[in-house]
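Issue: ligand-bound run for 1,3-dihydroxyacetonephosphate - logging full I/O for the record.

Environment: standard queue, default settings, no custom constraints.

Inputs:
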Amino acid sequence: MRRRIAAGNWKMNMGLEASVELARKVKDFTGIHAHSVDIVVCPTFLSLARTAGELEGSGIAVGAQDCYHESQGAFTGEVNPELIRDAGGSYCIVGHSERRTLMHETDKEVNLKVKSLIGGCIVPIICVGETLAERQALDTMNVVRGQVMRAYAGIEPEAAARTVIAYEPVWAIGTGLNATAQDAQAVCRAIRDTVRYIYDDTTADSVRILYGGSVKADNISDLMSEKDIDGALVGGASLKAAEFGKIIQAIAGMIQ
Ligand code: 13P
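Outputs:
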C-alpha cells in the first residue's frame, strides 16, 4: 500500500512571517493527519529554514521548489540538495512546468537534479505534463512517457522506487481548469506503466504519483478515488490553510 501525499507548492508567494504563520495554521488544522499521510509544504528558499523550524516535530515535512545539481562551489545564486537538507528540507520539486517554460529547464537538467537529490537523501517530486497544444494534438501520452524516461535515465530501481512523480497538465495549472479524474487516472496509469517498463513491478508499484493542476477541496475526492493517484501537488489552494486542510483531510479520508 502506497502512503499518500498532500503537498503544497507555495511558489513565489509568502514572505518569512507569512510562511511561518501559514505553516503554523497547517500544523494546527491538519497536523493530526500527519500520521496517516505525508504532508509537505514547499516555501521559497528564503523561508525554508524558518518554516522547517516551525514544523519540527509535527510530522509535516518541508520541501524546496528547485535545486542545482552540482555540489558546493562557484555557482552563484544556486542551492544544492545538501543545503536544502541542512535547512530542514526533505523533499524537492524538480522540473515544474513553470521552470521548464520560463527558465527553459530541460529533461537533461531534470535528470541531473533527480540524481543529485537522491545522492543528498532528499525525495524528488518530479513534475511532468503536457501543454494544451500537445493535448490537442493527442500527444499527451508520448510527451509524458518521454519526460518520465529521461528523468530516470541512469537511476537505480531502489532509488527510483522512493521518488515521487507529479502529473501536472500545463493547461490545468492556475487556470481553474482541471483534468477529469478519469483523464488524470489514464495519464497516471501510463506513467506507472512507463516506470514498470523502465524497471519492474516492484518499482512501479512503489512510486507515488500525484496529480496537480487546479486542485481544490471540491475536486480532490474524485481524483483520490482513482487507483493510480496517490495524492496531490497543490498550488493556489495550498496558500489558504483552511482550503488546504480540507484537501489534506480528503486525501487522508480515502485511506481504507
Ligand atoms: P494550481 O493548484 O494553482 O493550479 O498549481 C498547481 C501547481 O503548479 C502545483 O505545483
